[in-house]
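Human: I'm a chemist; would you kindly supply sequence and C-alpha cells for a protein?

Assistant:
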Amino acid sequence: MDDELNRVLLECMRVFEELRGLEIRVCYKPLREGVLGQTRVKKQVLSVRGKRRFVWSPVIEVSTTIRMLGDPRRRRDLLMYVLVHELVHISRSHLNRPRSKEHEDDFESEVIERLRALQKLLK
C-alpha cells in the first residue's frame, strides 16, 4: 500500500474516536470518471485459536487520478477530504444498508466539521 495514503488515513482516524480499533484498509484504484473515492466491504479469513473465521472489513478505494496530482499539498488536502468523507460513511453504518444516491441533510456538514477538527489537531 502507498505510504502517503496510509499516513493520511491514520491522521484522519484521529477525529473518528468511534472507529478506534476497526481495521480499515486503503488503496488506490482506477474508479469511474467523477468518483474520487468509495468504500467497499471485503471478506477476510482470520484464524482464531486454530479456527477459521470470516470477518468483514472496510476498504476505502481512492481514485488513481488523485495519485497523479503534481502538487503534494493539494494532493494531501484532497486525500483528507476523500478519506474523511468515506470515514463518515463508515461511522454512520452506511455500508450495512442498501445504497442510496443521496446523503442525509447533515452529511456534508459533518464532513466539514470533522475536517476542521482535523486541521486543529494537525496545527
Q: What stands out?
A: The chain has one domain: 3-122. The beta strands are 25-29, 37-48, 51-63. Residues 72-91 form the longest helix (20 residues).
